[in-house]
Amino acid sequence: MTRDEPEADATPPEEEEWQLYASAGYAAAEDPWDDLVEIEDEDEEEEEWFDGDDFETNGQTLDWDFPPCPTPLGIAHMIRLGTCDHCLHRVGGRRTDEAGEAGGASLRSEALARDKELESFETPDLCPLCENLFEDVDNIVERIVQQTGELDHGSLQIGVHVPKDLIQAEDQIRTKHGATGSRPLKAAFSEAVQTGVVARMDGVEFVKERPDLMILIDCLTLRVDVDIRPVFIYGRYRKLDRGIPQTRWPCRACRGRAEGCEACEGSGLQYPDSVQDLIGEPFRLALSANFTSFHGMGREDIDVRCLGRGRPFVLEVKRPKIRRTELEELMQTVNTNGAGKIEISDLRWSNRSEVSRVKETRADKSYTIRFSVEEPPEESAIIESISNLSGVTLEQQTPKRVSHRRADRKRKRKVVSIDNVFVEGKEVQFSVRCEAGTYVKELVHSDEGRTVPSIAGVLESPCEVIWLDVEDIHAD
Ligand SMILES: [Zn+2]
Ligand SMILES: [Zn+2]
Fold it and tell me: Is residue 127 included in any domain, yes or no?
């Protein structure tokens, strides 16, 4: 067989090559002779690389700078560098019947057939492009299969950590000697792992975002970590009882430590129930998850009920081993367990971006409020004064009761409408719709004049809220 010649003369003329080095990072040197010195250094280094290589054809020593793959000289050069079959295939730039390692092996045997001397060349132990990383693919696939086998999932994403110096070394060799468009190490390795996993597991899909499982591979230690992504469920809740906080509230005495204390009877909780747990616990158990996060569209105070259509929320279930379930059934479970306390409806699967949507939505809210007046005026005067507050804009200084966790500032909030005012002795009840973020208790008692106008102000008598219900959150 005759030796194949390069398909095109891709070797740069010697002069050009010199210029290339001259401009390679030494342009800023002050002394114009500096670069000459550097050029000689570079040259010597490159020659050292091929020290002992007596590769010759027709009695003529070839230039060390071979044309890149897919030329036969390029491929031969890759083999001489010690490239493994996997890498030979990915940087060789030639079509082969088989992909991956087998494809590389056929490129190698073709090259050996062309050039008998290649055989006598002693191959380095480590492939300079991957440091034999591809030999570990099966091992890593096995770890992935073991670690994900028990988990419920449809989509996987792979993240690979490759040491930086290997990435740089590989990039240098590949861009210089590899075929144009060769796949970089990280992408090729990740693809090899994916192919291996698909062959071993049914119904697996690899995605580029929002996976069910994130598989993180450390190529240095060959450690595989599986990050189970959370699932999200949207719904609305009605809180039918007072005295239930929206989210879990750790015990004040023991700060909620796992084993609890006497004060909390070992629960670690200040209140045994919370909307979060009444909804979240059945989900956590059903999905075999670690814990939950609760994201409400705002929140009501602990002593406030939430009625009407209920408050929109997104439940985040973290590290679930099971990802699919009948929402309708779980809704029944929550509503049965929470009878008289909470009720949920409108459940559907959701995602992380809805968490921000729900949290950022600024919706009007309607309330029913009952309060007492210390010295009530005439009934007709009460009704008229309160009804006249319909449509006003309140100026509210941050209430004293929340000032320890909120910045002290003034804000304007609109009272959209007031209806159904009625008086029973010293007690008054009414319905009000107001803008998001209105402190509605303060609208009644004025918070010592921090809310203006207020009902206490217009009735010219101290008022005290007896109870408060959220009747509607005007959203979704
Ligand atoms: Zn390799
Ligand atoms: Zn406690």
Answer: no
